[in-house]
Design goal:
By secondary structure, the protein is mainly α. The protein has one domain. Helix content is 80%, strand content 0%. The protein has 4 helices and no strands. The longest helix is centred in the first third of the chain and has 44 residues. The protein is elongated and about 65 Å long.
Length: 168
């Protein structure tokens, strides 16, 4: 069926991108742990914390969350309560999952679009961090990229669920 073929096509494009973003997120997580540990050691042993470590952790967290959320969606790791839905037939479950995916896709398209508008606003305002004077807009670009990839994953899921609903 064309829905399943479309889902597979989008999935073949999306999965390598998600894999790269996941690898970047894992590297950022390692850097965050190292920076936090070094900041604590420097603070208590040498009485000299790393200047701007809090800001760096904040920026790294933006990268980590926005790049990790698409991987979580691919793996089906998001929390879902299916106490009632599990009692329905497979076709009804697929229809409910299709509706949920459509609503989620609409929400994250809106979030991505607003992030793109926010990038322009922050670029022109030249917003910087308080201590290290790092511009904020590149990290907003990263968040927008992460949510755009999430939209692709949700679109893949939507086509898969629609295909399941149509075939059952």
């Amino acid at each position: 069926m064309w829905l399943e073929k479309t889902a597979n096509l989008i999935g073949r494009v999306t999965h390598p991108i998600v894999s790269v973003l996941k690898s970047i997120a894992m590297g950022i997580l390692v850097l965050m742990m190292f920076l936090t540990a070094m900041d604590v050691i420097f603070r208590y042993v040498f009485n000299r914390p790393i200047t701007g470590s809090y800001e760096l952790i904040e920026f790294m967290m933006a990268i980590l969350v926005s790049f990790g959320i698409a991987y979580c969606a691919v793996m089906g790791g998001h929390v879902s309560v299916d106490l009632v839905v599990a009692r329905f037939s497979e076709k009804t479950q697929a229809i409910i999952e299709s509706i949920t995916s459509l609503l989620s896709l609409g929400l994250f398209i809106l979030i991505t679009w607003q992030n793109v508008l926010y990038i322009k606003e922050n670029f022109h305002s030249k917003l910087e961090s308080a201590v290290l004077f790092i511009p904020a807009y590149p990290f907003i670009v990263v968040v927008a990229i992460g949510f755009a990839v999430l939209c692709m994953v949700l679109l893949t899921n939507l086509f898969r669920y629609l295909s399941e609903a149509a075939s059952k």
